[in-house]
Write a structure and sequence with these properties.
By secondary structure, the protein is an alpha/beta fold. 35% of the residues lie in helices and 25% in strands. Strands 1, 2, 3, 4, 5, 14, 15 and 16 form an 8-stranded mixed β-sheet that branches. It has an 8-stranded parallel β-sheet with strand order 6-7-8-9-10-11-12-13.
């Protein structure tokens, strides 16, 4: 076979190969191969195996790029399946208030939280939203992320939500990271509808969803199912309306209480239920039975100082596929780093390193229905890869400059500057 890129001499290649998503004990199987080679052609993987076998199987094309990965570990490109990438305004003052003891609810009651981001985002132009998000994407890329999900939800009116999704579309076309867009008009009830929330639910269902679908701006529809935000019945109605218009369902569920989001996810056949800090064993089993990926966001619990994390071990024991994501956002997701999320998953949610890696790659890909094209290093899939300087465990050295190179579709899109 012909290859136009060759990664050779890797101490270890963690292929994460196999059908996705992984569940139970299978989430620990990373397909580790020592002294391995990965070859690609025109963006796709054509060979994964030993250096000896590669010598007889792979023919390099003229001008092929050969990458010496000696002393390195190669893993699939990270997939971040839950982000609020696009927003305007600055809520870092809320971080300082939280560190001084203020709660999420207290900050929101004082005019902070989502509504503060809504005011700033409504005032921003599409180009300002694009310009604000580009540095965040560049930072994600430098940390090994090659695919992200990106939500609207800081507009909460049709024009602002549409402007956010158009910005996401522009961003997807203008840099290496692959982006899948999510409509989240049901992120909060906007201030002008606080005394007529039913009218806002109808606005989302009858006006926003059809208009967003008509422009094909979103692959997914999401809703914040939580006490004080959207009820299970409202969430179900919104997600079903999205499905009628061709948007697949995902849901913010059981973040601040056991509020019914997991059951809604099961009822509507959502691909992913996210957060799940208060999910119990029965609802974890319900997610497993209905093939809903449990996407966990430990960095949100960390930055919001919630005092607890999603019960990842319970979810795995009940047979749910566990994925990881950053929850990048302006108020409670102050990280772009999937390696940091993996560290929290290991040390705060008690995952093994192998389970965390699958959660950040193959299972994260399954959370956005990309498990057949990304999330593992297998013949036929996109050559999205991260070259780690050192051992696999070096990935969870918080702040360590361990990402040496990042490849997207077989092209080197980031190289760490030594020094």
């Amino acid at each position: 076979m012909i290859a136009d890129v060759l990664i050779q001499n890797a101490d270890l290649v963690a292929t994460c190969a196999g059908p996705g998503p992984r569940r139970g004990s299978a989430q620990r199987e990373i397909g580790a191969m020592a002294n391995a080679t990965v070859a690609g052609f025109e963006g796709r993987i054509v060979f994964v195996g030993s250096r000896h076998d590669a010598a007889g199987a792979v023919t390099l094309a003229p001008n092929a790029q050969v990458i010496d990965a000696q002393g390195c570990t190669v893993v699939p490109g990270f997939v971040d399946p839950h982000t609020h990438l696009v927003f305007a305004g600055d809520r870092r003052d809320e971080l300082r208030r939280r560190l001084a003891g203020a709660s999420y609810a207290e900050i929101a009651a004082a005019g902070g939280g989502i509504v503060k981001s809504v005011a700033a985002t409504r005032a921003a132009t599409e180009q300002e939203l694009v310009d604000g998000a580009r540095p965040r994407l560049a930072e994600m890329l430098s940390l090994g992320t090659t695919t992200v999900e990106a939500k609207s939800g800081y507009g909460l009116d049709l024009e602002s939500e549409r402007r956010m999704l158009r910005a996401i579309r522009t961003l997807a076309a203008g840099q290496p990271i692959e982006i899948t867009p999510t409509f989240m008009g049901a992120h909060e009830v906007p201030v002008e509808f606080r005394n007529r929330r039913a009218d806002y639910v109808r606005e989302v269902i009858d006006v926003m969803i059809p208009a967003i679908a008509a422009e094909n701006l979103a692959e997914w529809c999401d809703v914040f199912c939580e006490h004080g935000v959207f009820t299970p019945d409202e969430s179900r109605d919104i997600l079903v309306a999205g499905q009628r218009h061709g948007m697949k369902a995902r849901i913010h569920a059981d973040e601040l209480a056991l509020s019914g989001g997991s059951r809604v996810a099961a009822d509507v056949g959502a691909r992913s239920a996210d957060h799940l800090i208060f999910v119990d064993a029965d609802h974890a089993g319900l997610l497993a039975d209905h093939n809903v990926v449990a996407t966990l966001l430990p960095s949100a619990a960390f930055f919001l100082k919630l005092g607890r994390y999603a019960p990842a071990r319970t979810l795995i024991e009940q047979g749910a596929a566990v994925a990881l994501a950053t929850d990048l956002n302006p108020g409670g997701g102050f990280t772009t780093s999937m390696p940091f999320v993996m560290s929290l998953a290991c040390f705060a949610m008690h995952l093994t390193l192998e389970e965390a890696l699958i959660g950040a790659t193959l299972n994260a890909a399954a959370s956005i229905d990309r498990q057949n094209t990304i999330g593992s290093l297998e013949v036929g899939k996109q050559l999205d890869a991260v070259i780690v300087a050192g051992m696999l465990a070096d990935l969870i050295r918080v702040g360590g400059p361990v990402i040496r190179q990042v490849l997207k579709r077989g092209r080197v899109v980031h190289t760490r500057i030594a020094g």
